[in-house]
Backbone:
């Protein structure tokens, strides 16, 4: 199952940073790719508009959820991520809300996001908390 992540920043820098974090996780290495738009006149290349992550049931799903939540907690500014499954279902997470969570709530956020990502097409359940 492919998951698409979009970010609130206009230049795609957050998506590059998140992809870097994902590639550091052995279970996720080689599973993500940046999706770019049309290069703007006068620029050297396209801007990342989305990040696609190929997930299989099991450890990769949990690892992806943990990396996303951890990455959001470490953001200094305000970042809003939209995580969308192949069936079109999506969840929104913001760095400000995730940053405020205590350790137990962070674990629950990872569990909720893991459940959301692992449900796959056709499911109408699952919403990550602490968005």
Residues:
């Amino acid at each position: 199952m492919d998951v698409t992540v979009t970010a609130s920043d206009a230049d795609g820098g957050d998506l590059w940073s998140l992809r870097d974090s994902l590639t550091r996780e052995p279970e996720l290495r080689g599973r993500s790719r940046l999706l770019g738009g049309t290069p703007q006149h006068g620029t050297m290349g396209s801007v990342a508009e989305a990040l696609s992550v190929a997930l299989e049931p099991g450890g990769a799903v949990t690892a992806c959820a943990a990396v996303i939540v951890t990455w959001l907690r470490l953001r200094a500014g305000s970042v809003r991520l939209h995580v969308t499954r192949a069936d079109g279902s999506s969840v929104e997470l913001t760095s400000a809300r995730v940053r405020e969570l205590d350790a137990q709530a962070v674990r629950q956020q990872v569990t909720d996001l893991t459940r959301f990502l692992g449900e796959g097409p056709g499911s109408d359940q699952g919403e990550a908390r602490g968005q």
